[in-house]
Amino acid sequence: MTAGIIGATGYAGAELVRLLSGHPEIGRLYLASSSRPGQNITDMYPNFLEKAGAESPGGGETPLAAGTLEEPEKVIAASDIVFGALPAGAGEGYAKACVDRGVSYIDLSADFRLDAESYRAWYGKDWLYPELRRRSVYGLPELYREQIRALAASGPVVVGNPGCYPTAITLAAYPVLAGSGPKPAPDAAVIADAVSGVTGAGREPGRAYHFPECSDSVSPYKVGAHRHIPEITRNLSAIAGRPVPVVFTPHLGPYNRGILATVYISLDGAARNAASGPNTANADAARLCYEEFYRNERFVRILPGGLCAATGRVRQSNYCDISVHLDHTGGTLIVISAIDNMVKGAAGQAVQNMNIIAGFDESSGLRAFPALF
Length: 373
Prior knowledge:
By secondary structure, the chain is α/β, with parallel strands linked by helices. It is built from eleven helices and 14 strands.
């Protein structure tokens, strides 16, 4: 199978290059950059340098044998599936070109995550090709795996790859809002604080991301106005079957990659602990419900009691680690989730979606354990 990446020189695009180069089902990888055509991916990322005459484990050239950055149109023409790692509004035309050729397109921007009204309100753009939405599906596999598979079975599909914060927060809240575990209070809001590494801001430089500005400091940003709020709200409301109010505050952390999200959900009065004080039994019961809910999910790990989710234990992996807790009264469920924002929050999840579309094992190319350091 051949794969193409449009926007291969950004951080998410480069992570796609890394993952797809080692994917056992990818025979050739084509890269595109509208700003650097003719250059080689190794000009920006020397980590992709290969020895002359290198062969894949099965013989023949490696998927990244050339690494030359082509025009996007050439990549679409040569690929069986295409990934778009582009800013919002920049990839919709490429999605249409792919669908017109019968090729599926996995979009890592926000162009296919929201309805038209929300997209206009939060991104200030209108859809160029509304008809593409008949072939599009939201790409969080743990929620929409069957919809992705069914749509792909009938022709080319456009996948709106989820945002990094929505992935971490949705997976943390999913079981309890779906009715597994402690019962939420009627009309309970979901409150989420999340910290992201600097790669979440992308490769383009900005003062806030210079080393002296972000090192040794944690700072909130876009308080009450982050563009992922409508995506999170849509996800949680669909799970709960009711409008779910969301309070979300993102923070920038002084590290490269990873998201840690702490999610709070008030519980129904009947679920509260009448005697104030830690209630280990109820916390254990809540965690067991999460374990059962995610029992068959390859990339969601529910951590044992006494262990909190941490970004360092999911680094360079497609895992989402979740730890489940109760506050001292038993009245608030506290769920902590950790993902690598570049993998499960972007490129890894996109590869997971490709595996579903193509009928590969969903974990193909993504089975490595997290890096220790």
